[in-house]
């Protein structure tokens, strides 16, 4: 993957993380930087899944949907884990 692809993935991942956080109901007690990391990981995994099923050609709504769903699941999981850590202290 070229450097421009990595930079694009990071920028898209930041947006995907924010969208994923908006999709998850309730308040998430996780830092913004962690939401960004989850978004970047979700964007990369979502792109790989979209390529594997053959829908990643240029801009794809299906790819974007996959990425946002993965980010929402990731944010919910991380928020759940972080929430349990703070309540069991």
Annotate the secondary structure layout.
Layout: H1 3-23, H2 32-53, H3 61-87
Helix pairs in contact: 1-2, 1-3, 2-3
Through-space gap between termini: 43 Å
Q: How many H/I helices?
A: 3
User: How many beta strands in the DSSP annotation?
Assistant: 0
- Return residue spans where pLDDT drops below 50 for at least 5 consecutive residues: none
**Share of helix, binned:** over 70%
Q: Beta-sheet strand percentage?
A: under 5%
Structure report:
With 89 residues, this protein is an all-alpha fold. It has one domain. Helices cover 79% and strands 0% of the residues. It has three helices and no strands. 27% of the residues are buried.
Briefly characterize the structure:
The protein has helices at residues 3-23, 32-53, 61-87. It is an all-alpha fold and 89 residues long. The mean pLDDT is 82.
Task: Give descriptors for this structure.
89 residues, mainly alpha
